[in-house]
Design brief:
The structure is a single chain. The protein is an all-alpha fold and 138 residues long. It has one domain. The chain is built from 6 helices and no strands. It is globular, with a radius of gyration of 15 Å.
């Protein structure tokens, strides 16, 4: 719970500095996950979403990120993977959507009250990262 409290405090600070209502950010992780990730990763994050069988490679079990990383949640790697705008050629083609680009498009098309596009993208991605941190199994 301590991590969630720190993340909530950070979200409030970001929201206040960007002129966004805090309610738009705090608690956004579950909604972001359900709308963007669950179709492949499943509602519980185990990689068993309804589209999982359609992919060339099975989606990751997002509840095991810490366990598969020596017990430490790989937040920076998760941020980069979600954002996706930083392509790694040696990793081959990417099946996962490039959410950083999608969020920029969402910002540009919508009536978003947050200060600038990159702040919007980082805030939405951080909500997902914090949510995924909370899904980890021991």
């Amino acid at each position: 719970m301590k991590i969630h409290s720190c993340a909530a405090a950070l979200a409030v600070a970001v929201a206040a500095s960007a002129g966004v209502r805090a309610a738009e950010i705090i608690g956004a992780g579950p909604a972001e996950f359900e709308s963007r990730c669950a179709v492949c990763h499943g509602l519980a994050g185990h990689g068993d979403g309804p589209f999982a069988a359609l992919l060339l490679h099975p989606p990751a079990d997002l509840t095991r990120l810490s366990a598969d990383n020596g017990g430490e949640f790989p937040a920076a790697r998760v941020r980069r993977m979600i954002d996706g705008r930083e392509a790694v050629a040696s990793h081959g083609p990417r099946e996962m959507p490039v959410w950083g680009r999608e969020l920029l498009i969402e910002y540009q098309r919508g009536n978003v009250a947050i200060g600038d596009p990159e702040t919007y993208v980082r805030t939405r991605i951080e909500a997902l990262v914090d949510y995924l941190r909370g899904l980890q199994v021991p």
